Automatic annotation (TrEMBL):
It comes from the Bacteria. This is TPR repeat. InterPro entries: Sel1-like (IPR006597), Sel1_AlgK (IPR050767), TPR-like_helical_dom_sf (IPR011990). Transmembrane segments: none annotated.
Amino acid sequence: MQLKAWLARAYFAAGETSKAVPLFEEAVAAGNVVALSILGDMLTTGDGIEADMVRGAQLLTRGAEAGFAPAQNSLGLSYDFGEGVAQDYGEAARWYRAAAEQGLAKGQSNLGLMYQEGLGVPRDYVAAAAWFERAVAQGDAIGQVNLGKLLQDGLGQAVDQERAVALYRAAAEQGDVHGQNNLGYMLENGLGVPEDVAAAAALYRQAADQGLALAKHNLGLLYEDGRGVPQDYKRALTLYTEAAEDGEMRAAVNLGLLYLDGLGTNIDYAEGRRWTEIAAEAGQPVALNNMGHIYENGLGVTADHARALDYYQRAADAGYQLAVDNLVRLEDAAAQADVTGKTKQK
């Protein structure tokens, strides 16, 4: 059965799922932990087989309870995201820890994230960094990115931008999209490394080509501003659209502005409002402010100062300073108009 499980794994790696699944099923029936783990993952993600998260979680549970670290980490993911089981961060952290304590780098990185976010365990940046360090020692790209972000932001330890850059670079060289994007950000802004916007653009492009929405947004910004690349509003429009459709709300804000201003496209207030409203409904402060601007100035809608004030207030409550300024300005104008009206009535 062990040989069947490993042969199935080889078939799966080669994309020959139809040959892999029957062998996995035989090995699963015999309780082989490799088969339980891999077939459990396949069923959870629908990778080469019809998705069945419930059965996937059941197989992963059997593998995890047998002490197989990859199954323990995958079962942790199932609990983390509520895939095939009820979401339970405590159970997720428990299974990540089981895998991490066996030395599985992915488990160490995932447990570190639970400490970083305070999910299933108390928030503890020092503990998060300690687990990330263990994953980094094994060359794990996810651990490198996560530890780099703690060092970049100074969470649980002193800010160390130079080491953050080194960690992001190590992850980027492994093809990790977040490493590529984060290293690009450091190069774009000259953090821990001399500024090199052209190199940043190249890194954003690598991550964008792999589908990372944030990298598409960041590359779009460079094209819009003509930094590190020739200014190209149409290219920015395309990148923002792709990123926004993938759920990156900062891109939705900028996409809305391009339509409102007619950059890279004709002015289209309806489309500009649509994207801005999508981001505003997600609670994006800049989008809330921009919706206020749309209603204050009647851009494709009937001017409505009450709605404008409401949007400015919501953005101001989120701490966006421009919205605070707009709110004060509009309230002052309304008060002045009210005073003037009373004078005329006399």
